[in-house]
Amino acid sequence: MTALFALATAVLWGLADFGGGLLTRRIPALTVVVVSQVVAVVVLGAVVLGTGAWREAGPQLWFAVGAGLVGPIAMLSFYKALALGPMGVVSPLGSLGVVVPVTAGLILGERPGLGQFAGIAVAVVGIVLAGGPELRGAPVQRQAVVLTLVAAFGFGAVMALISEASATVTGLFLALFVQRVTNVAVGGAALWAQTRRGIPALPPGTGPKLLWGLLPALAFVGLADVAANGTYSIAAQNGPVIMAAVLSSLYPVITALAAFAVLKERLRTVQAAGAGLALAGTVLLAAG
């Protein structure tokens, strides 16, 4: 069950990242983050009301608030690092956030077997290589490295926090709702401050009509991200956190495959090798 939900998380996060990447070619990244999360808040709000999940409010929701505070910071740091580039270095480094939940699992007393440790090592190497790291070329700016590491730590922290935010399925709905409301509050404040400084929320010469036309894609990104957080939480609560974290972190492989299928981007040799290693690591983890 843990492996199934963790792999579902990887697929959802991978597709959400792919969709978000495409949208940032049309509108600013911060606008993508805020609008997609607003859609998620509306949908989750309806689910919370329909299931009576608000009755499960308790101190554990502070974990959801923490995840909501960290998430937008991590995402914006990642987008800014991608803008500084080179993407072939930034993207794989961003996946190193898996170290945070894996460490949390070890602290909590999880001790994977030898085969699982081998699977973790192989999968993590595969995840990094699947991003197509650039081993030669232009030097990487120090700022890009710092921003990427901030993003990686943030992504890992969100994984660790959201898994502690609920103990039941209905409680998970409430936790995800609180997380997204916090996301919107943080991202919305940043967007407001940005527009006050004269940086438009939409490209010059466009207006709400463009946003409305992109709403289905924005909704997909926001809801896929929410669903991924939900499936990860279920995976982490029903099995080893380390296995859930590593398998969920296969999302760069999904993003690369989506780019290959939709945009006809050719996979570099290092990416194909990384995808193969990630798959091999998954098999070792599941078998262990």
UniProtKB/TrEMBL annotation:
Residues 3-130, 144-285 form the EamA domain. Keywords: Membrane, Transmembrane, Transmembrane helix. The keyword Disulfide bond does not apply. It comes from the Bacteria. InterPro entries: EamA_dom, EmrE-like. SUPFAM superfamilies: Multidrug resistance efflux transporter EmrE (SSF103481). The chain crosses the membrane at residues 26-49, 61-82, 88-107, 114-132, 144-162, 169-190, 210-228, 240-263, 269-287. Belongs to the EamA transporter family. This is DMT family transporter. It comes from Streptomyces virginiae (Streptomyces cinnamonensis). The lineage of its organism: Bacteria, Bacillati, Actinomycetota, Actinomycetes, Kitasatosporales.
